[in-house]
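[Q] Does anyone have a clean structure-token version of this?
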Amino acid sequence: MNDLDDMDGLLDAVDSGTEPTAEARAPRRDMPALMRKISVTLTLEVGEARISLHELAQLQADSVVELDTLAGTPLTLKVNGTAIGRAEVVVSGDSHALKVIEIDGLDLDLLGA
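[A] Here you go.
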């Protein structure tokens, strides 16, 4: 769908008094084919803790370090170290995976401009 079709869909919804379709509301994520091949690192940050060097030296295999994140809250989703949203850990087959809760810091439309 091109930009004019997107705009037509939104205008039709306004004219008819109905909600725009999910396709018309969804952000475009088109980019040149070459850019689609660029690898990025996607990470899920559980939290952090600030400890002294003395406490660090005392860590052992059974040590517990409390993090600054409350249990059960969505975790920070990052691309190449930059926060782009929130996610939670899920199990997918025999592996851990992440379920995206929200994306708010990623604008792929600017990459293709």
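[Q] Thanks! Anything notable?
[A] The CA atoms of residues 55 and 74 lie 28 Å apart.
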